[in-house]
Amino acid sequence: AEVALERGRRDEARAMLEGFTRTSEPDRLYRTSLMPVVARLLVRLNDLETIRRHLADPPPFVSERERLSLASARAVLAAAEGEVTSAAETFRDAARDWRRYGMPIELGQLLLGLARCERATGRRSEALAAARAAAEVLQQLRARPLLAEASALQDELEG
Fold this sequence. Notes:
Blueprint: H1 2-6, H2 10-23, H3 28-33, H4 35-44, H5 48-56, H6 64-80, H7 84-101, H8 104-120, H9 124-141, H10 144-158
């Protein structure tokens, strides 16, 4: 779905996400663990309702990984809904927890989301610190597209 969306094939990406939802129904813990990726894709497809539906009905037992995944998805949704102050708080808390958990790609994504929210609330120095932290994590991962986004945001905030 990510590749399809990057290539501009929105209908294909949407169909793949719908297929994921159907096939992952029996294993909701698996679905929950992938919720940050799914939420980011659904935001790009302007489908916030599907994210809300997923977040409204989490599995009864949630491991630390799933708990963190739900927190990430909640931050993504709050930011997409324009609730940037609460999104920033959720991004910040989730980034702290993911750092402890040890998932650097999610940490980089969360720090980037935090930087965007801090910028939107006018907290320029906090936004710059988050953008720098995101760039550092993403540089280590060699995650070029995300690193380019973090670097561009950093340049904007420094200028």
